[in-house]
Amino acid sequence: MQQERNELDVIKKYQDKGYTSNFKCENDLLIELESKNTYQPEQITIEREHRFEGLSNPSDMSILYIIKTDDDFKGMVTASYGAKSDTDVDDFFKRIPKQNDHSNDDI
Description:
Order of helices and strands: EHEEEEEEH
Structural class: alpha/beta
Oligomer: single chain
Shape: globular
Strand order of the largest sheet: 1-5-6-7-2-3-4
Radius of gyration: 13 Å
Distance between the termini: 11 Å
Number of domains: 1
Low-confidence stretches: none
Helix content: 10-25%
Protein name: Phosphoribosylpyrophosphate synthetase
Largest sheet: 7 strands, mixed
């Protein structure tokens, strides 16, 4: 897991690499917003994750998941973590099989 300071710079870096799909979590599924395709946890691969602390308030923490779906949509999902965690997203990502989590692999 990598920790970088500027979330917008990291997002831009991945958008430039083709991670342009946007997702939301709803009813225990991840939904690609443009196509409306839905995904179960086992259909998602976590390529990387980045954690950020708020600049003005360090307790404002977020995590940026860089993901790929089994039908090759590539994008990002942002969620709060810590005391203000987004439980739907957190629960979904906890159910992704360990073999699909490459966030700690060497680059």
